[in-house]
Amino acid sequence: MKYLIIINDAPYGNERAYNAFRLAMQIQKDNPEILVNIFLMADAVTCIIQSQNTPNSYYNIERMMKSVLLKSGKIRICGTCADARGIKNLALPEGITMSTMSELTEWVVESDKVINF
Question: Can you list the domains of the chain with their CATH numbers?
Answer without folding.
Answer: 2-116 (3.40.1260.10)
